[in-house]
Give the backbone structure.
Amino acid sequence: MLGAAQIRARVRRLARQIDEDYRDLDDPLSVIVVLKGACFFAVDLLRCLKIPTRLDFLQASSYKGVNSTGEVRLHKDISMPIAGARVLLVEDIVDTGVTARWLIRHLESHSPKDVKLCALLDKPSRRLTPVTLDYTGFTVADVFAIGYGLDFQESHRSLPSIYEAVVETQQQD
């Protein structure tokens, strides 16, 4: 679906765009990475950025298996203060938009100057909740993607490329 070289090139272009947009920052950009899926993307992105950054993580989920539950659960919150800060939320994929919108609102409750969203993959055909992506790596069709941080049941995250996976979904009775 997306090869390692293609991903690297796009990450470099995103970093240049972010560097340009935040070139006049007085304070470091607060980069908040959504665990676990965005780790690979975030590390590569951070290595390409030239602007000063601060780094923190949060973890939330709205999925059980391959299906969205529609309910977001926060498993790990940020630990650094972001009041008055410029914040970049880094996601692996924005699918329904439910988790991304919830996370943005959650971060906004900490009173940052602003929150921008950067996602490696955008799947707009599945959107249930409106959400603005400020930086997008790739727009993809409604497929189940694995690799480069994206998993299926905690496996396949370390693949260097992104692949379309064929998974069977079990219907709930």
